[in-house]
C-alpha cells in the first residue's frame, strides 16, 4: 500500500504559501486569481486532502473543482496499473498545429523532434529519424484537438493500439505543468512549492517544459534542456522559504533569449511537492504529489491537471 510519508505543514502556513503564490501570480500575470481547480492523487488519505482544501480556502481561493487522479494519467506516465514502478519512455504528441516526440526519463522531459508542417507525407518517418528512435520505441500516442486527416492516418498506420483515449489526464505527464495544451502556444505560468522552497517557471509554448527541475536534480538539469533559454525562473533558497526572489520579473522578456545558468549542488530530498498552474482565465490549477527521492529517482510522479 502506498502511503504518504509527509508530516503536513500547519494549515495556516500552507495557506500563507498559497496566498503568496496567488499575490505573486496576480502581480506577474496581471489578472485577479480567485479560484482553484484541485487535483489530489487518491493514495492520499482524506485528512490530507481536507488539509490542502482548508489551506486553499484560508488563502482566499475558491475551490471550483476537485479532480481525482485517473487511470489515463497512470497510462500516460508509463506506469503499470498496479504499483509505482518507474520506467523511461517516449511519447508521440500531436495537435492541430504541430506534432512532436517527447522523451521522458527520471522526472526530465525533452522534445526530441517537432514538426510544424503537418500537410505532407512522411511526417512520422521524419520525426522518428530526427529523434533517432524506431516506431516500436514509442510507448503511447497522445492526440489532441483533431490533427490533420493526413497526420491522423499516418499515426494510426504507424502506431496501432498505442493511441490513448482522448482524456485531459492523458496529456499530462510527471510534474510537467502545461496549461495550454488545447490551444495555440501562449505564455503560461506554473508554480511549485516544496518544503523549505518555492519555485516558479514560465514557458512560451506547449512544447516548452515547465517544471522545477533545478530544485530537484540541479546537477542534471542542463543535460536535456533544449528550451531552457526560453524560460524565466525565480525561486527561493532554503534560507528564505516563504519569500519570492525574482531573477527576472519582466514578462516582456519571456520571448527573448535569456542566459539562465543551472544551479549546481546537491538537492535535498523532499516528501511532497505542491504545484500550481495559472490558466488564462485566472484560475489556479493545483496538484499534490509525493516525491521522496531515493537513489536519484522519484518514488512517485505527480498527476497534473488542466
Provide structural commentary:
The structure is a single chain. This protein has 306 residues and is an alpha+beta fold. Helix content is 20%, strand content 25%. It contains six helices and 13 strands. The protein has helices at residues 11-29, 46-58, 71-77, 123-131, 149-158, 213-216; strands at residues 35-40, 62-68, 89-94, 99-105, 108-115, 138-143, 188-194, 197-203, 232-235, 272-278, 283-290, 293-294, 297-298. The strands form three sheets. The protein has a seven-stranded mixed β-sheet with strand order 2-1-11-10-7-8-9, covered by helices on one side. A hairpin with a 4-residue loop joins strand 3 (89-94) and strand 4 (99-105). Helix 1 crosses helix 2. The longest helix has 19 residues, at 11-29. It starts with 10 loop residues before the first helix and ends in an 8-residue tail after the last strand. Residues 1-9, 41-45, 67-87 and 167-306 have low confidence and may be disordered.
Summarize the structure.
By secondary structure, this protein is an alpha+beta fold. The chain has helices at 11-29, 46-58, 71-77, 123-131, 149-158, 213-216; strands spanning 35-40, 62-68, 89-94, 99-105, 108-115, 138-143, 188-194, 197-203, 232-235, 272-278, 283-290, 293-294, 297-298. α1 packs across α2.
